[in-house]
Amino acid sequence: MEVSVDRELCEANAVCVGFAPDVFDLDDDENLVIGPVPEEEVERVSQAVTNCPKNALFTTG
Known about the structure:
By secondary structure, the protein is an alpha+beta fold. It has helices at about 15-20, 40-50; strands at about 1-5, 25, 30-35, 55-60. The strands form two sheets. The protein has a two-stranded antiparallel sheet. A two-stranded antiparallel ribbon has the order 2-3. A hairpin with a 5-residue loop joins strand 2 and strand 3. The protein is globular.
């Protein structure tokens, strides 16, 4: 699974970080950083994508 973000939609409110902090993070400029998605994080990442308040996250694979 790979995750991408539409930076035009993302407000960096960190809801995704709350669901999967091992995959999502905010950098010093409040930009979303997405790391690799290990197999054991797929469910949490899926929840983060589903619960993004701006629908800014997308999955492939």
